[in-house]
Design brief:
This protein has eleven helices and 21 strands. The protein is α/β, with parallel strands linked by helices. The protein has a nine-stranded mixed beta sheet with strand order 11-12-17-14-15-21-20-18-19, with no helix packed on it. Strand 2, helix 2 and strand 3 form a beta-alpha-beta unit. Helix 5 (115-135) runs parallel beside helix 6 and helix 7 packs parallel to helix 8. It binds zinc ion (ZN).
């Protein structure tokens, strides 16, 4: 199936070249290239299913200790973890973790059959999670789903995608390659069970995701490893109770988190990395249209349930516009990062690159390039908006500092002036 897709794309490109060649026009360029995994060597998302109370008791303290790791909880009303302690999940959400949907009753979706019943299990339960957490002080947008027992079919997938932009299934090695577009309603995950995996095996999977090791000798029938990948891990409970085969010891998951950070992986929620990954396939294929002083690039949002904000770290080919090219979104300039890349907003749906006007000081870009200090950053901005890593708007800030009343963790702050904006990841 993949092979067919490739040859089709190749064929289409050839056809374009020929027809443009004949008419003497040049092909529209694709000037934006997303930097893989937000500038990290690879990525990992730890997901925890079934809303078990021991997640709040035993995992939350470990997450609080390690502000570089944020995870995803797929909630269900099966069992009593969510019903008994919605405040515990609200606190996890407020600390920057993602809350996703794992159905109301955790039944077998493929044997439900009726759309009404599926709607109740999937769509209404997503609304219910949002409402319950809001009642407990957490503003959450449920955007990710995980199928119970990893069972789905076309009918189930279509109802999931009407309310979520991504679905986690399970199985196999759980790695996703940067340049191979996955089926968004069928993302694979590596499953932890005490009987099915060892801690060493999990640590080694984190090495593979970070492309650490020599993969040349791999047998040709094995999955070839060609670079850093996104590893998705499926966990359930967190407890020392050895009788629970699905659970992992707190000390072991702590070791695994720490190894992810040692390996410099981007350890972020499933929906956060999934949105970055999904956005890249769209924006890297977007073509430019010439304007009288530069060009614009527009693209479409692939699913309306993407996060409200999806910051993308990209390189932009501005050569055709010149050295002093100005990059703008929504009428606001975006200053480059110190390495010349830009952090743009995917959800803005377009971007323009233009020459500076005559009296226009040739962008803050040249100063930002040499002096990326926080001081000069703060000067021009009048509005600072605080987001969690899932793109939920939390409130405002005075500068690139997270206000003290927010829990410790990682946040995104978007700064705006009349004609400038800058998005930055910040710690509190
Ligand atoms: Zn489950």
């Amino acid at each position: 199936m993949n092979r067919n897709k490739h040859s089709f794309v190749k064929g289409a490109v050839t056809a374009c070249t020929i027809s443009f060649g004949l008419t003497g026009l040049s092909m529209a360029a694709t000037p934006i290239k997303t930097i893989p995994w937000n500038g990290h060597v690879g990525a990992v998302s730890f997901t925890f299913d079934d809303a078990l109370e021991n997640q709040i008791q035993n995992l939350k303290p470990l997450l609080d200790e390690n502000p570089n790791v944020h995870v995803t909880f797929f909630l269900t009303n099966m069992g009593d973890g969510f019903r008994k302690n919605p405040a515990g999940y609200a606190a996890l959400a407020n600390a920057g973790n993602e809350i996703g949907n794992h159905t109301d009753s955790h039944g077998h979706l493929t044997s439900v059959g009726s759309n009404d019943e599926l709607d109740k299990e999937i769509v209404k339960f997503a609304d219910n999670i949002e409402k319950t957490l809001a009642d407990n002080g957490a503003k959450v947008n449920v955007i990710s789903f995980a199928t119970p027992f990893c069972e789905s079919n076309d009918q189930v997938k279509s109802i999931i995608s009407s309310r979520h932009f991504i679905n986690r299934n399970c199985g196999w090695h759980g790695r996703n390659e940067w340049d191979v577009e996955p089926e968004w309603m069928n993302i694979m995950a590596k499953i932890w069970t005490r009987s099915g995996a060892t801690v060493d095996e999990m640590l080694s999977s984190l090495d593979t995701a970070a492309y650490i090791g020599n993969f040349e000798g791999a047998n040709p029938w094995e999955v070839q490893v060609k670079g850093g990948t996104w590893l998705v891990v499926l966990n359930h409970g967190v407890t020392d109770d050895q009788g629970d085969d699905y659970a992992i010891n707190p000390a072991d998951i702590k070791k695994i988190f720490e190894h992810a950070i040692e390996n410099k992986l981007w350890a972020a929620p499933f929906g956060t990395i999934g949105a970055y990954y999904r956005a890249h396939f769209v924006i890297d294929a977007a073509t430019s249209t010439d304007t009288n002083n530069g060009f614009t690039v527009s693209w479409k949002i692939p699913n309306e349930h993407m996060p409200a904000s999806v910051p993308l770290r990209v390189n932009i080919d501005t050569k055709s516009v010149g050295e002093k090219a100005i990059v703008e979104q929504d009428g606001k300039k975006i200053a480059p990062e110190s390495d010349g890349s830009y952090i743009i907003e995917f959800m803005s749906k377009s971007l323009s690159v233009r020459k500076p006007n005559e009296n226009e000081s040739s962008n803050d870009s040249s100063t930002a390039l040499t002096k990326p200090s926080v001081k000069t950053d703060n000067k021009a901005y009048t509005k600072f908006t605080l987001f969690d890593l899932n793109g939920n708007r939390l409130g405002t800030a005075n500068d690139f500092t997270v206000p003290a009343n927010y829990p410790k963790g990682t946040y995104i702050i978007r700064a705006e002036s009349n004609d400038n904006s800058k998005t930055k990841k910040v710690q509190r």
